[in-house]
Write a structure and sequence with these properties.
This protein is an alpha+beta fold and 597 residues long. The protein folds into 3 domains: 186 residues, no CATH class; 260 residues, no CATH class; 141 residues, no CATH class. 71% of the residues lie in helices and 7% in strands. The strands form 2 sheets. Strands 1-7-2-3-6 form a 5-stranded mixed sheet. Helix 2 crosses helix 6, helix 4 packs parallel to helix 7 and helix 10 runs antiparallel to helix 22. Keywords: Cell membrane, Membrane, Transmembrane, Transmembrane helix, Transport.
Length: 597
């Protein structure tokens, strides 16, 4: 009987439950996506060489579990508030409190368990789809990644089942404690206590000071090291909370005290709404801002690592291709490359010494990487004769057996006088390295075949080999950054959405009163957009500022951590705006029902 009542109750408010259900479905899907990574030890170890990466990702999994728990609390609050009056009506009609508690337990657990099962299936599809997009579109090089993980599936189902079991018990206990009158008057909320302006200003200044201290610590982690990380964590957490607990309230009150702003349209009502609820929202807004920073930071740093691959590759070696004994390579293979610069250096060897013709280097100087300046250094034949260090740069382009020989740069006449067979060392630069990678890889294989003692693990003189090395290393970071970013962004936006919606029932009477005295729907909807806009925009701005200062921490790992920052900011802005618009629509449906005639 209780099961039938639970199902009928869900059917009666199917639209509201679908909102909750979809949010829980996304939450469990994202959780599965992350667990499929965290539990895939072979993938993590194969795609990054960072020490203890599995442990680090496990810690990330714990963090996501905590965030998910907070998310469930807000979603659960939304579920309870949505039907509180109905439960009160059941009690008025003679239903026992024990039976109502059992009914709530069944509804909560049933919705949560079904959402978890479907969310896990969605998570498998998302994991597969996102991995294919990242691998194909971003040209990532990943190994041992399996989107279907029985262990991750089991962990997701068990974790969410436990969460919803606890939530169902909590809801049942809450109903047992509440009186009939409190259930029927669930929209009544006590007014906030009188606030001290001086205290708010003092808290605001302390919050700004804590943020400044945290940003300073992050800007010089080479100096502060581990102490700087923990110091920045605590100061930024404290500063963020005080910004929302005090400074934002001071800002709203400042607008409220300006007649040209407050008395325009329904601004006074909107500002009063914000003033009424801001301190109650300070914790969730702080959480959202920190999660926003973590999500955006993870994605930005991941993209930053990817952007650095080509830069590091070009700095590691001056040439796109080096061909030893190039006379054995057919002209047809080389014609497939769009060559912008090509140099051929003649060689002769007597088994102990390797001889070069100085005229070849005078005609086309050797390019060597100069780490002290931007670009490459041109080395003439005369410089090679005098500078042994620069001869070593030339030696590095040779096969292993020839690197062990003595090296001499001879004049054209002395070189011609040697009665030894002539071989060639050819170096090439192409117009577009990225587009030429397939053909370059093919020519590297041909070069290894023509020189049996040579393989790609010796010397890293081939740019395509260096590229593949760093691509394999950094692709893992980018892949993880995308998953972390998506997971955190979805959770934070959902937490804020359900926090707002869980209190929407308390605003119904206020909006109905405005409707009855003649306020137009357009003005009421505009007021809602402004109110929710500030609640979404404020943590987004604070989180973005955290990221802009936090990227300073990665200056030792990335050449320019701010390079390409527009893409992740734009992507997050679009997704975040989508959650805002969804919340506005749902909120309007709750607080602006059609007036009864």
């Amino acid at each position: 009987m209780l099961l039938k009542l639970s199902i009928s109750g869900i059917k009666a408010r199917l639209r509201d439950y679908l909102v909750l259900f979809s949010g829980l479905l996304v939450a469990s899907g994202i959780f599965y996506m992350f667990e499929s990574l965290a539990s895939n030890k072979a993938f993590l170890e194969a795609n990054t060489t960072v020490s203890y990466v599995v442990i680090i990702f496990r810690l990330g999994s714990v963090l996501l579990a905590i965030i998910t728990f907070v998310y469930i609390l807000y979603a659960n609050s939304f579920l309870l508030n949505m039907r509180q009056k109905e439960y009160g009506m059941f009690l008025m009609l003679g239903a026992k409190v024990k039976k109502i508690a059992q009914l709530i337990f069944l509804e909560t657990f049933l919705v949560g368990f079904l959402a978890t099962l479907m969310g896990s299936l969605v998570g498998i599809a998302l994991t597969k789809g996102v991995s294919l997009i990242l691998i194909n579109q971003l040209q990532l090089s990943l190994t041992h990644f399996q989107p279907v993980s029985p262990k991750a599936l089991l962990e997701t189902i068990v974790f969410f089942s436990i969460l919803f079991f606890l939530a169902a018990v909590f809801n049942a206990q809450q109903i047992r404690k509440k009186t009939l009158l409190s259930l029927l008057k669930d929209g009544s909320t006590p007014a906030p206590g009188k606030r001290n302006l001086f205290g708010l200003l003092l808290q605001s200044l302390i919050g700004i000071g804590l943020l400044a201290a945290g940003y300073y610590l992050m800007s010089d982690l080479v100096r502060f090291q581990i102490a700087g990380i923990f110091g920045a964590l605590f100061t930024i957490l404290g500063g963020t909370f005080l910004i929302f607990h005090a400074l934002l309230l001071v800002f709203v009150n400042g607008l409220k005290n300006r007649p040209n702003v407050a008395f325009r349209r329904l601004n006074n009502f909107t500002l009063s709404q914000l003033n009424f609820r801001l301190q109650d929202y300070s914790r969730v807004l702080s959480l959202v801002a920190m999660l926003f920073a973590l999500a955006l930071g993870a994605l930005t740093v991941g993209i930053g690592f990817k952007n650095d691959i080509m830069k590091i590759t070009k700095q590691s070696t001056a040439y796109d291709l080096v061909l030893n004994n190039s006379q054995a390579v057919s002209a047809g293979e080389l014609s497939k490359l769009d060559i912008t610069k090509e140099a051929t250096y003649q060689q002769k060897s007597d088994g102990t010494t390797l001889y070069y013709n100085q005229a070849d280097f005078d005609q086309e100087p050797l390019l060597i990487t100069d780490y002290g300046v931007k670009g490459y250094q041109r080395v003439s034949g005369e410089e090679l004769v005098k500078d042994l260090n620069k001869q070593d740069e030339l030696r590095n382009l040779e096969t292993p057996e020839r690197q062990a020989l003595n090296l001499q740069i001879l004049s054209p006449s002395d070189f011609a006088a040697l009665n030894l067979p002539t071989t060639e060392l050819k170096v090439i630069q192409v117009k577009d390295f990225a587009d030429s990678i397939p053909q370059l890889k093919k020519l590297v294989k041909i070069n290894e075949k023509n020189n049996p003692g040579l393989n790609s693990e010796q010397g890293y003189t081939q740019r395509v080999v260096v590229y593949e090395l760093f691509n394999s290393f950094y692709s893992g970071f980018e892949f993880m950054g995308f998953f972390l970013g998506i997971a955190f962004l979805t959770m934070l936006a959902s937490c804020l959405m359900f926090k707002i919606l869980s209190g929407a029932s308390q605003d119904i009477q206020r909006y109905q009163m405005l409707q009855k005295i003649g306020a137009r729907q357009k003005l009421l909807k505009g007021s809602i957009k402004k109110e929710l806009g500030l609640l979404f925009l404020a943590p987004g701005i604070v989180g973005a500022i955290h990221v802009l200062f936090g990227l300073k921490m990665f200056t030792t790992l990335l050449q320019n951590p701010y390079n390409g920052i527009v893409l992740p900011f734009a992507l997050f802005g679009i997704i975040y705006a989508g959650y805002y618009l969804l919340t506005v629509k749902l909120y309007e449906k709750i607080v602006l029902p059609p007036l009864k005639k």
